[in-house]
Each structure stands twice: as C-alpha cells, then as structure tokens.
Specification:
This is Polysaccharide pyruvyl transferase family protein. It comes from Microbacterium profundi. GO terms for molecular function: transferase activity. The chain is an alpha/beta fold. It has 2 domains: 168 residues, Rossmann fold; 159 residues, no CATH class. It is built from 12 helices and 12 strands. The strands form 2 sheets. Strands 1, 2, 3, 4, 5, 6 and 7 form a 7-stranded parallel beta sheet that branches. Strands 9-8-10-11-12 form a 5-stranded parallel beta sheet, sandwiched between helices. Helix 6 links the parallel strand 6 and strand 7. Helix 2 packs across helix 9. The radius of gyration is 20 Å and the shape is globular. It starts with a helix and ends with a helix.
C-alpha cells in the first residue's frame, strides 16, 4: 500500500518533470532569510526535489542579494528560474510579493516557475499590479498548492500557465521523533495569520507548553556567524560572485539550523497542536499525532482537505472544543 508521503512525492515529481527536463540548470530565488522554520522546511523540500530530478542548481539568492547580472552569469542563457514557494503569493506579505514581481519582470528571457504557493489577493490595485507584471511574461508557470487556490489563481492569472502542485515541504523524508516530556506542544501563530492569538485553546486539564518557532542562545550565535558572508556581500557587491560558494553553503546551514530547532520544539510534546501549516507538516513527518487548527486565510484546512489529511496521524479541529476533544481521546 502506497504511503501518503510517497504519493505526494510521486505526484509532485511528475508535475515538476513536465516543466524541468533532467539536466536543466536552475536558479532558486527568495531564500527565506528569517526564522520561520516552516519556510526552511519548504526550502529543504525544494532542494530535495531538485536533486531527485537531476537538475543543476547553479545560483541561489535571497531578496537582498539577488542580482540579475549574477543570475545570468551563473545559470547561462538557457537556465530556468525557480521562485521559492510558500504562502506569500498575494497582498498580505507585500515585501515578498514585490520581490517575486521583480524577478518575473526582469526575466522575460527565461522560463520562470513560481513553486507551489497559496494565493491570497483582495480585489484592488495590488492585485491589478500583479496581474499586469505576471501577464506580461511570455513564459511564466505558477504552481498552486491547493485546489481552491488553483481555481482562484486560474481565474485571476489566466494569461499564465497555472497548475496545481502539492506543497514542496513534502519533498522531505519522514523523521521519526521521540515522545516528548509534556502531553501537548502548542505551536501557536502570533502574526497576522492567527485567529487564536488571544484565545486560550488548551483545556487546563491537559498538560501542555505553548511556543512558537525560535532558536536557542547557541542557535542565535550560529545564526549571526552564518550571516557574515552575506553581510560582506551586501556591503561590498563586487565580492558577491567570489563569495557565492560560501554564501550558498551558509543558506543551507541557516535552513538546517532552523529545522533542528523546529524538531526540538515539536519534540517536547507527545501531541502537536498548531495553527501553523508547516508545524503540522513537520509533526506529520515526525510521526507525531497532529491536531491542526485553521489560520486566518484557511490555508491549513485547504491543505488538510487536499492531501495532508491522508496522513493517519493528522486530524483537523474546526474549533478549540474539537481540538480538546481530539487531544483527550488521544491521551486516553
């Protein structure tokens, strides 16, 4: 019997292989240079898919170190541009969207593929700007990670090649973790996507810890060290190409640092309760029982409905009361 992760990876590789011939040279842009470990889970999944497809990854960059000239230098005239996936295709996270539009606008000479995203646009000038920039590109593929979002993106971005493709975080291998020292770890959003920021979700009778992504003091020190080459490259642009091999290794070190921290945090609980999509994904990959609450734009429930819900250890809780009932049943 095919396991859920195997089917998701098989489907994703089939979709990507239609767009990316084996041996192609690619760039992967918009490295998540922040401490949201969910984005690094996606990044590591993207890197694994690139390896599995037999692609040559020749250039990576974050928003502050990207250069069109460097991109052309490293990937040559036929290279394909990949934009890191996630949940920032829209008007909620405007800085990320603006960078994606810059990439699209500067690379009409290349096939550009926006890797699996959720979409969240309100009608208005921000959407119209994105439609104008994207619609002007002659060879832009937009991958959308849930079916509701796919229908929305197909309607709003009909001039582009819009396809469904599962979230890239599922490119990672299963990681079986130990049972933690408390019953429940509640990994809780506190940003604009939260609908439970001021709500007491877990019943007092259930032993639990409330946390969010973050690093230990040692991790914070390593974070600073790994950013030194990038700081030099940013202040002295003429050093970027010479420093690129070191910078690329530092990106990977940053991603793995954040993921080690994320696994440590989720490992503290026997059950993972979360309204963060990629905490639910990581918990599922770790083999832990996961109880997932929705976030403000419904991306958690959408992904659970489409494929994350096929994992037997993942359950969706529409309300706090449902979450407590499910957790109580799991703890009996």
């Amino acid at each position: 019997m095919q396991m859920p992760i195997d089917k998701i990876q098989t489907d994703t590789l089939r979709i990507l292989a239609e767009l990316l011939p084996a041996g192609s040279t690619v760039a992967l842009l918009d490295f998540p240079n922040h401490k949201n470990a969910g984005d690094h889970l996606i990044w590591e999944g993207e890197i694994q898919y690139i390896r599995d497809l037999g692609l040559k990854l020749a250039y990576v960059a974050d928003a502050t170190r990207y250069s069109k000239a460097d991109l052309d230098h490293f990937i040559g005239p036929d290279g394909i541009v990949l934009i890191h996936g996630g949940g920032n295709f829209g008007d909620r996270w405007d800085e990320a969207q603006a960078f994606h539009e810059r990439i699209v606008d500067e690379n009409h000479d290349r096939h550009v593929i926006q890797l699996s995203q959720g979409i969240e646009f309100q009608d208005g000038p921000r959407l119209e700007r994105a439609q104008s920039v994207y619609g002007a590109h002659p060879n832009l593929t937009i991958l959308i990670r849930d079916h509701v979002g796919f229908d929305d993106a197909s309607r709003r971005f009909g001039k582009n090649d819009v396809r469904f493709c599962p979230d890239m975080a599922f490119g990672n291998k299963p990681i079986h973790g130990e049972r933690g020292f408390t019953d429940v770890i509640y990994l809780k959003r506190t940003d604009s996507e939260s609908v439970n920021a001021s709500v007491v979700v877990v019943a007092p009778s259930i032993g639990h810890l409330v946390d969010d992504w973050g690093l230990t003091p040692v991790g914070e020190l390593l974070w600073i060290i790994y950013h030194v080459p990038g700081a030099v490259a940013r202040r002295l642009p003429f050093t970027r190409r010479a420093l690129f091999p070191i910078q690329a290794r530092c990106y990977q070190a940053i991603a793995r640092l954040n993921l080690r921290s994320a696994k440590r945090i989720l490992g503290r609980g026997g059950i993972v309760l979360t309204d963060r999509l990629h905490a639910a994904v990581l918990g599922a990959l770790m083999g832990k029982p996961v109880v997932a609450l929705d976030n403000a734009n419904g991306k958690v429930s959408a992904i659970i409905r489409d494929y994350l819900g096929t994992f037997p250890n993942v359950q969706y809780a529409p309300t706090a009361a449902d979450a407590n009932r499910i957790m109580s049943e799991l703890l009996d």
